[in-house]
Amino acid sequence: MPTAIDPSASWKERSDAKKASVLNGIPAEFLHPDLTHSETDRNPVLDIPSKFLSSKELSITALDAVEVISAIAQGTYTAVEVLDAFTHRAAIAHKLLNCCLEFRYQDARVEAEKQDRYFQETGKTVGPLHGLPISVKDQCRIIGTETTCGFVCNIGVPDTETCDLVRILVNAGAVIFVKTSLSIGCLWGETINNVIGRTSNPFNRSFSCGGSSGGEGALLGLHGSPLGVGTDLGGSIRSPSAYQGLWGLRPSSGRIPYYRMLNSMEGNEIVPSVVGPMSHSPHSLELFVKTVINSQPWLHDPHCQPIPWRETVFTEIVEGKPLRIGSMLWDECAFPQPPIRRAIREIEARLKAAGHEIVPWKIDQRTALELLTNAMSCDARDDVDRTMALSGEPDLQLAFSPGRKPLTLLEAWDLTMKRTDFRALVMKRWNATATDDGRGPIDAYITPVNPSVCPMHEDYKRIRYLGYTGSVNLLDFTACTIPVTFVDSQIDLADQQDGRFDAMGLPIPPPVSELDKTIRANYDPERFKGLPVAVQVVGRRLEEEKVLGIARVLHKLLEP
């Protein structure tokens, strides 16, 4: 339900009302008054839910999305039992991490009860997502609720329509039970806004959960949801996924419907934002993408491509097709910290041991980042500034490039052509990886998600670098985050200042900029100990089936 707001209320009064409304949406039996949010506590909170959940709730919330659906279909659990378990855990996550913007428990309970009745009467499920609780980023409009997109002015304003993606998920049997926090206007890699404040990382609450889909990342990181929906303009699915050890898919634009979702800078399609899934297994991502694509979203969303799910492409990779995988350990702009380099090398070693080929790969990320930044700041913050002014909320100075001048129409056209020329150049380079003896171009490439392990809250501004994620958005490639390992302070030693070799005996290039130097110096093995470490696998545009197939292969190779 929309937050009850006095039209004359200040931005702070609106924010306070929203915070109270979020808590009021949680069933009383799931509220634990002693639990509080902290931005400075360095202890992991991953085990705290076990102190409050029943054994049944712990068993349910340990399942991934595919396992949840199977358990309901087999009659092991009811949809209501599953909803209650995840709502309870999500409530704990919110109290600890400040990650949710709305609990839809009453509406979700009605839907779950309806599905249980149908299953009891027919012995059948209503669809491929029967009874699955799904969390969605607070850009997903749902009629009768409110969608803030991180702006205070949207508090108390009810949605008058439901976005296409939510409609598809609900028709397939999903139960949308919670909406999650995000950065203001989805334009920052740290999840903070004036609506409810900052969101923290469950592995260490003094560290960032990433952004802009950080509410999803934090909630999923504490297993408060089996499957979440995020969006990605410059890495906003992949960074939170990496920071919380999750699998997250950044599809190409036109595969998953975005129509009727709320966004900032709507109409700017030089580098389009995309929507995709986040979860604890590649199988859950596959389930989401297959279900959505099989609903033929192109019949309703004018941006969606009429491309059915290509099972043959996916299956031949999963069943053992030899792969040629490019590898870009660093982009000559920002050298990855030691744990990330170890993760890349581990993936390379496991692929080689399984008979796959590793091919060196490079992209001109300086040019890519310049084009991306120009695209994301083409209105010189006008849309964000005007929207914030509606409530009078303070400027957290998180949007891109304050002080720039907006592009003229001709300049925007020129930028679009430069983007297209850059895409063509990379396509040519990709094709050139084919060999004279008949081995085709690379199937995908692996690269860091970010050069740093997730930073502390106060460090994000100093070490922000979007090159590894942002180039993928500029190219509109498909990418999937692959959780690999955790920071080990005994292995991932800090590089010695002015050292020529790292702890593994491999060469260290000299810093190429002050930002590069700052990112390197920010790493501390003791401070970062236990944090998740991930990479991304990147495929060509509209190659979701291939990328998900490779993700499944990597998942198997990384199993203990």
UniProtKB/TrEMBL annotation:
Domain Amidase: 81-548
Coiled coil: none
Top EC class of this enzyme: hydrolase
InterPro entries: Amidase_CS (IPR020556), Amidase_dom (IPR023631), AS_sf (IPR036928)
Active site residues of this protein: 137 (charge relay system), 212 (charge relay system), 236 (acyl-ester intermediate)
Superkingdom of the source species: Eukaryota
A UniProt-annotated Pfam family: Amidase
Statement: the UniProt record of this protein carries the keyword Transmembrane helix: no
Catalytic activity reported: a monocarboxylic acid amide + H2O = a monocarboxylate + NH4(+)
PROSITE patterns in the cross-refs: AMIDASES
EC number: 3.5.1.4
Alphabetized UniProt keyword annotations: Hydrolase
Family as reported in the entry's similarity comment: Belongs to the amidase family.
Molecular function per GO: amidase activity
PANTHER family assigned to the protein according to its UniProt record, in alphabetical order: AMIDASE (EUROFUNG), AMIDASE-RELATED-RELATED
UniProt keyword Aminoacyl-tRNA synthetase present: no
Annotated protein name in UniProt: amidase
